[in-house]
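Please fill in the sequence for the structure shown.

STRUCTURE ENCODING:
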């Protein structure tokens, strides 16, 4: 999976809003808090508003807030809003991929990839990230990966 800068910024902005849940946050404050270029953030917030993940308030006390509780918005919701499907192969349905012979099992590899991504991204909410208490299976996977990195010296 390759995540665009726009999607990564969107997730960071949404987690920041989750940390400030209940408050209306000005775009400039949100941009400063996460080091996101302000004009880029305006475009991101527009996409998030169109998908009803955030709502805006106008006026002197205006800004942005989450449209639903942080616990009800997954990381996958944000990524799909910005970049579309989580994992795709040439934008073709997996059942329509032209694999045969020794490559036939690749379809199941791609299915497993999607399933593993979904188990992390759909089951991790903005509230989980903002509070630092990730779902158990996500924390376990991250810990195992950290251990592998340390063994490789990275």
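FILLED IN BY: designer on duty
SEQUENCE:
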């Amino acid at each position: 999976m390759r995540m665009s800068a726009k999607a990564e910024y969107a997730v960071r902005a949404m987690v920041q809003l989750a940390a400030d849940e209940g408050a209306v946050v000005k775009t400039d404050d949100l941009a400063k808090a996460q080091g996101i270029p302000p004009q880029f953030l305006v475009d991101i917030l527009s996409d998030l508003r169109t998908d009803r993940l955030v709502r805006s308030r106008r006026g002197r006390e205006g800004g942005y807030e989450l449209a639903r509780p942080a616990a009800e918005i997954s990381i996958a919701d944000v990524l799909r809003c910005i970049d579309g499907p989580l994992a795709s192969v040439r934008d073709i349905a997996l059942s329509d991929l032209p694999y045969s012979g020794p490559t036939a099992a690749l379809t199941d590899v791609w299915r497993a990839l999607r399933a593993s991504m979904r188990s992390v991204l759909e089951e991790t909410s903005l509230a989980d990230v903002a509070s630092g208490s990730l779902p158990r299976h996500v924390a376990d996977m991250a810990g195992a990966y950290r251990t592998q990195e340390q063994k490789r010296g990275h």
